[in-house]
Design a protein that fits this description.
The protein is of the alpha+beta class. 19% of the residues lie in helices and 24% in strands. It folds into three domains: 3-52, Roll (Structural Genomics Hypothetical 15.5 Kd Protein In mrcA-pckA Intergenic Region, Chain A); 60-124 and 212-231, Alpha-Beta Plaits (2-Layer Sandwich); 129-206, Alpha-Beta Plaits. The protein contains six helices and twelve strands. Strands 4, 5, 6, 7, 8, 9, 10, 11 and 12 form a nine-stranded mixed β-sheet that branches. It is elongated, with a radius of gyration of 21 Å. The termini are far apart. Bound molecules: uracil (URA). Residues 101-102, 105, 185-188, 201 line the site of uracil (URA).
Length: 238
Amino acid sequence: MKLVKLIANLGYGSRKEVAWMFREGRVTDSDGEVLYADDKIEHERIRIDGEPLDPASGLVLMMNKPLGATCSRKDQGRVVYDLLPPRYRQRDPALSTVGRLDRDTSGLLLFTDDGALLHRIISPRAEVSKVYEATLAEDLRGGEGELFASGTLMLESETTPLAPAWLEPLGPRRARLTVTEGRYHQVRRMFAATGNRVESLQRVAMGALPLGDDLAPGQWRMLSADDVARVFAETSKH
Ligand code: URA
């Protein structure tokens, strides 16, 4: 791919703007030598204003989504894309969230520009486990674990029951819940079906990839191929 198109597709500007960046000498190699638009060079050696070029397509990153940000591209309030470099919103192929978390849910959120990977992760057939920790308004009653694991729980206005899910009580009003689907407001609706209410919700893992504690809310990092493999790794659910 020609350099102007490559760099424009990474969101640095329109092709016209990127052509100007070349004329201004802002595009160099790793030794500081000015590059020309028709040069051939490996991606890793390209610098823009002295900074390494963003990763090529096939990008996967994880964010510790903070409370209060929505997963849409544009919304009235704060959106998760506001926490990434602005040019990430202009990438082609587009960078999308892998599923969504509610505005009032925090924790592990993945992004990718790889459509096939995205579908592999969110497809119910892949059964990638999503692990949540919830704080509840009322004490657990004791029958929730059995109900959630039964595979018979039907949420309001749905026509198919939920796949089995696994509950681990962490305290009278705290629980870890592992689900393999991603239905709308699923965890909140599951507890609502038991007469309870979720007061706070955090996603703490996807498959065997934990949120960990190295990312403060709002921070993000690139994932390696090994990290991505962990999303699909078999996890013990109960
Ligand atoms: N379940 C919910 O209710 N909300 C989320 O954000 C994710 C799962």
